[in-house]
Amino acid sequence: MRKILTALILCIASLCVSAQSNNAKFNKALADSLGADEYGMKMYVLVILKTGNSTITDKPKIDSLFGGHMQNIGRLASEGKLVVAGPMKKNDKNYRGIFILNVKTIPEAKALLETDPAVNAKLLDAEVYEWYGSAALPLYLKHHDEVKAKDF
């Protein structure tokens, strides 16, 4: 009887484990550290930057504001708040670039955008959307310095 009870407990325990994850590569500690849900996903905020309505024409001033924009990108990335950033090719919608911010809400994203000099000066305007993506997305950043030959 004791052997049967032990076998039954082991079967139930193995069913519980397999019900929690059907992925042999699943790393619970990593998933938890990244804030992943059961699908390995989480909420971010996608920002589409587009040409703003600024009337600034002073080239050194514009250059300074965009320099501050680039510094802000670096700061947010180093803080883990920005996981993707990049410009877009010229297009008919005046989209200039994108950010994926490692925050859960639009108000949090807007607070971060207020720290960007080019956005504050209206050189860039931002559309913000909640976006559901892989929780592992931030992990690529640690390799970025290994593949770039020079800074912007």
From TrEMBL:
Residues 1-19 form the signal peptide. Residues 45-131 form the YCII-related domain. Keywords: Signal. It comes from the Bacteria. It holds the Pfam family YCII. InterPro entries: YCII. This is YCII-related domain-containing protein. The lineage of its organism: Bacteria, Pseudomonadati, Bacteroidota, Chitinophagia, Chitinophagales.
